[in-house]
Amino acid sequence: MEINKELLDKLFEQAKENPRLRQNYDLRTSSSDTSQRMLNALLPGTVVPIHRHEDTTESVICLCGKLDEVIYEEVVTYENASSDAMPMGMDSQDVARKVEYREVQRIRLCPAEAKYGCQIAKGAWHTVEVIEPSVIFEAKDGAYKG
């Protein structure tokens, strides 16, 4: 198999037709492959929810285009609870757990600027913001769990 302009153009065309504005291409050799390797064509406006991979790092290499990998930290707050202890008469069932994400790092990927890729740490919350049509190669340990 050859990864060339023809393949990338095909992925961009499929991404344009996809309501999610992205299209991946599985590079595994079989469904029993114990790694995840894929090309992902991403168009501006695609929304990739903030997520993490608890058991593996993720390697991302940008083949073309421009995007930002955005790394977050999880911020957990508890409504109706003081920082020291539960108020009198309140137990843990009365507390609402609120999770938010605070941006801590933004990594620009753009081969034209000699910014080729990054490694996302195991367990790091992250997403991408696509600036111009891009194709990335992604690799993670472990079989895909859909």
Could you please describe the fold and organization of this structure?
With 146 residues, the chain is mostly beta strands. 9% of the residues lie in helices and 48% in strands. It is built from 1 helix and 6 strands. It has one helix at residues 5-17; strands at 22-26, 35-42, 58-79, 96-109, 117-120, 125-141. Strands 1, 2, 3, 4, 5 and 6 form a 6-stranded antiparallel sheet that branches. A hairpin with an 8-residue loop joins strand 1 and strand 2. It is globular and about 55 Å long. It starts with a helix and ends in a 5-residue tail after the last strand.
Topology:
Blueprint: H1 5-17, E1 22-26, E2 35-42, E3 58-79, E4 96-109, E5 117-120, E6 125-141
Antiparallel strand pairs: 1-2, 2-6, 3-4, 3-5, 3-6
Number of helices: 1
Low-confidence stretches: none
pLDDT averaged over residues: 90
Q: Output the helix-strand order.
A: HEEEEEE
Q: What is the helix content?
A: under 10%
Tell me about the biggest sheet? 6 strands, antiparallel
| Terminal Cα span | 25 Å
Number of strands: 6
Structural class: mainly beta
Oligomeric status? single chain
**Beta-strand percentage?**
over 45%
Radius of gyration: 19 Å
**What is the overall silhouette?**
globular
Gist of the model:
Helices cover 9% and strands 48% of the residues. The chain is mainly beta and 146 residues long.
Key words describing this protein structure:
single chain; 146 residues; mainly beta; 6-stranded antiparallel beta sheet; 1 helix; 9% helix; globular
